[in-house]
Amino acid sequence: MRVVVDFDMCQSNAVCQGVAPEVFEVRDDGYLYILQENPSEELRSKVEDAARSCPVQAITIED
Amino acid sequence: MPDLGSVVVVGASLAGMRAAEALRREGFDGQLTLVGAETHWPPFDRPPLSKQVLVGKWEADKAVLRTDLDPATDDRLELRLGRRAIDLDAAERRITLDDDTTLDYDGLIIATGATPRTLPGVQQVTGIHVLRTIDDCSSLRRDLDGPAYVTVIGAGFIGCEVAAAARALGHPVALVEALPLPLVRVLGEDIGKMTSELHREHGVELHLGSGVEGIDGVQRVEGVRLTNGEVVKADVVVVGIGVTANTDWLAASGLVIDNGVLCDQSLLAAGAEGVAAAGDVARWPNPVYDGALMRIEHWTNAAEHGEHAARSLLAWARGEEPPAFESIPYFWSEQYGVRFQMVGTWAEGDEQHVVEGDPLGPERKGVIAFVRGDRVIGALCVNRPNRTLPWRKHIEARATYPVPEPE
User: Which of A15, A32, B82, B177 is placed for a possible disulfide with B39 were both Cys, Cβ 3.0 to 4.6 Å?
Assistant: First the structure.
């Protein structure tokens, strides 16, 4: 699984970080960082949940 | 145990769509019917309509909701788009649509959203807009194509965003608000003052503390008459004075309607079996705020509500205790590059404390905490996106103010 963020759409709402802090982090500079681009399968449901929760639909998961 | 053979979801925007998706994801494989007043599929996403789409940064087709619902591959999924529900008989479990067809259900999720309030008596005058749907947005976009004096009535979030968008397009903009400051009802005086300065700096003419007396113009709008006697020139008017929950069709349903569909804490509707509500139309006691009744019009709430209503309905059908919906409201807005992110809630009488930076000063960067009694109930982060989560956690933990310093 590969996590892809459309950074043109991302507004640093940090909702994804609330759901999957292992994978997403909005830092002090105001930008979102992907901590693991290829997270392990056990994180799949969390990452899917984060993608659904993103209020600007910036997150996609590629298999 | 009730048998859940068929579920109807009325309302095919974010909350309804997420409800339908969650039903399938959680294993419901019966007949699923999604009724929507708007004709577009997938449905349009609303926040970009007052932001990127309105300023022309995005084509409209970029602002659609992503969904894995597909009637082409799911033969027990039916979309009834361009149709409104006009009546519900919750005892008979029967919905009537505006083409006089009926739908029977075992389970129902109500997600009919809300409708913008309009000015009375101006239906014949062109150039007056509300902004809710993609069609509203396209029609407003067309009116903003050429030079135009734009007057926005109502300085809530929609009004403020539209004013900012119209300025970005180069139009002269007036913002009219009956209350003394923008956003004052939702965020109070200090933030209202900051917001009014922000709009003034960007050339918006503010008319605060004056209501609208009427509209000048016979066929096409020419001006907005204020209660203080002033007339504000206008070729285009955008009305952003709030919304009303779409519950008219439920008047004879047997459900309890009181500023929305009244629900229990699991989002199951009061007054009938097998009915849940979600999104802008649902009013429920939020356990985070000691069961205070809330009806929330934000994106994240609609998405979470939809999913949760589906889970509660399925739990009810299995004879299990439906889970409570605990939610900390979340909202974001951007005006002139200043980003507002609000977690939790604030109401008149609650305290506000600047806890980080200088959110109200010229830098416009920092955090304001909202406090009720001694409890942290919300926060507004201005240009500080990475502070929303820690404050969300304080609210979740029912933290008292002041919160302990971070290490």
Answer: B82
Rounded percentage of chain B residues whose pLDDT exceeds 70: 99
CATH number of B6-115+243-317: 3.50.50.60
Which residues does A contribute to its contact with B (CB < 8 Å)? 11-15, 17-18, 26-28, 30, 52-53, 55-57
pLDDT in tens, B164-192: 999 999 999 999 999 999 999 999 999 99
Cβ-Cβ pairs closer than 8 A, A with B, add up to 48
**A30-59 average pLDDT score:** 97
Mean pLDDT of B204-211: 97
Cα angle B38, B94, B320; round to 5:
100
Which sequence spans correspond to the domains of chain B?
6-115+243-317, 118-239, 337-396
- Residue A17 pLDDT greater than 90, yes or no: yes
| Optimal mutation site among B386, B387, B395, interface A, most CBs of chain A within 10 A | B386
ipTM associated with this complex: 0.95
Mean pLDDT, chain B, whole residue set: 96
Segment B291-306 shows an average pLDDT of: 98
Residue B224 contacts residue B218 (beta carbons within 8 Å): no
Domain that holds residue A45: 2-62
Superfamily of domain B118-239, CATH level 4: FAD/NAD(P)-binding domain (3.50.50.60)
Second-level CATH architecture of B337-396: 2-Layer Sandwich (3.30)
- Indicate yes or no: CB of A57 within 8 angstroms of CB of B341: no
Q: Is B370 left (phi over 0), alpha (psi -120 to 50) or beta?
A: beta
Distance CA B155, CA B252 (A): 35
End-to-end CA, chain A: 4
Q: What is the pTM of this model?
A: 0.97
Q: How far is B353 from chain A (nearest CA, A)?
A: 21
Tell me the C-alpha distance between A59 and B7, whole Å. 30
Residues of A in contact with B392 (CB under 8 A): 18
Q: What is the DSSP letter of A35?
A: S
Q: How many domains, in total, are found in chain A?
A: 1
